[in-house]
Amino acid sequence: MAAGLIAGVFSLCMNRERLVDNSPVEIGVFGGSGFYKLFDKAEERVIETPYGAPSDKIVVGTLAGKRVAFLPRHGSSHQYPPHKVNFRANLWAMKSLGVTRIIGPCAAGSLQKHVEPGHFVVCDQFVDRTSGRADTFYDGPIATHVSSADPYCGEMRKLAIQACKDASITVHPQGTVVVIQGPRFSSKAESKWFTSMGWEVINMTQYPEAQLARELEICYVNVALITDYDSGLVGDVEPVSHAEVVKVFEGNLAKLQAMLVKLIEKIPEKRNGCACGKALVGARFG
Hints:
Helix content: 25-40%
Number of domains: 1
Shape: globular
Order of helices and strands: HEEEEHEEEHEEHEHEH
CATH class: Alpha Beta
Distance between the termini: 14 Å
CATH topology: Rossmann fold
C-alpha cells in the first residue's frame, strides 16, 4: 500500500476519533500475558482498520498526567494465541489515534542464568524465528525496505532503563530476544541452541510487533518480564508451563505498573535524539 494512501486513511480515522474526544493520545501500551487492564477509569474506543479488528477495544485513560491508549495484544480474555494476534490491526489502530510512542511489555523466558525470573530486560535486538505472519504494511506495488538494524527506540530504551532503576527493579539494560512461532514452547534442543548463541530472552510476540511500529515511524520500546528459565538452560529446570508464566507475571504486575508510571512521566512531549520518526526516509524505490 502506498505511503500516501496510508496517510490518507490515517487522517480519516483520526478525524473520526476526534469527534469523540479532542484530547491527544500520543502514548500507547500493549498488554502481554497476564496484563489485561491498565486503568480503573477509562474510555473504550472501537477502532476499524484495513487489516481487520484489533485484538480488543482500545482503552484510553490518563496515567502520569498524560493520555494513554492501552490494548491487550492477546485480547482481554487472552483469546488470541501469539501466532493469531492481528499485529497489523493493533499497530494501525494505535497510529490512527495519533500514538507516536509505544511501550510493549511482555512475559518472556530467560536463556541465560544471570537473567533471573523476576528481572526485567530492556531489549535492544530481536531474532525472528516465526513463520507465516503478516509482518509488513508494504506489500507493493512500490518496494519499501524499512531497516531493522536497530529495531528498538534508543531514546525510549534509555528512559525505560532509568524508570526500572527508579522503581527499584533489577533491570538488564540490553538483550536479544529470540521470537518463536508458538503456541508451543521450545524443545530442550532448540533452547540449548538459543542459549549457545548468547541470546538472553525468548518470547512469542516481539516480532512483528516491533518492526511494524518502525514501519509506521512509531517509537517502540520493549520491557521483557522474565517469568522462567527456558527448558534447555539447566538440567534441573522444570518444563515451562503457561500457568506458571502467568503466575510469575501477575506477581510482577505491581512492579510493572510502577515502572510504567515512571516511564510515562519521563517521556518528553517531542521526540529527541531518535530516528524512529524518519524510518521511511530512503526506504522506497522510485
